Amino acid sequence: MKRITFKSKDGTKLVGVWHLPKSKTNKAVVLAHGITVNKDESGVFVQLADQLVENGFAVFRFDFRGHGKSGGKSVDMTLSGELSDLTAAINLVKQQYCQIGLLGASFGGGISALYTAKNQEKLQALCLWNPVLNYDHCFLNPTLPWIAARKTHIRNDIQTQRWTTLGKRNFILGRKLFEEMVIFRPYEEIVKINIPKIIIHGDKDTKVPYEDSK
Hints:
GO terms for molecular function: hydrolase activity. This is Alpha/beta hydrolase. The protein has helices spanning 44-54, 79-94, 107-118, 135-140, 145-148, 151-160, 175-183, 186-189, and strands at 2-7, 13-19, 27-32, 58-62, 99-105, 125-129, 163-166, 171-174, 197-200. It is an alpha/beta fold and 214 residues long.
């Protein structure tokens, strides 16, 4: 593995890790993690990267702003900011590899769908794992128990103190993120994608609605 730093368009410092195969290749895969975690994706992305390298792919995984080792605070995180981070990561990879696949997990899946819909010429394939494609169903008017019970609490937080917390780690999210969730709709953008794509989503998922991936 090779750790590097690079910058998003607004100057935010981002940290990424390369996994490189022994033989030269022109194919690479970029991994986009979910919310509250980091580029390791609880170890899953590390294992996936190793497997892809064994099959001849270069792999680049990175921390979005406000996550892991990258700069910025989680409270300042926005969808447009994450899109800028992903754009910077793919542009970096594009400097060395001409064929790129993108894999986004959970929250990173929605960001990946939004990016791909506007940049299909830069990618050869898209893979989404349990993607957050509908922010209304997942955050604004959630139905799944893990977050639905806190819906009123979250709304009150956003209105009164302009931030709230998410998950067991008390990950801090700001009002701007929720305002952008009203505007961005990955489920509408994904149907515009014409490059090869696949969505993998278990029907017993308790965090992200399986129905949104159908």
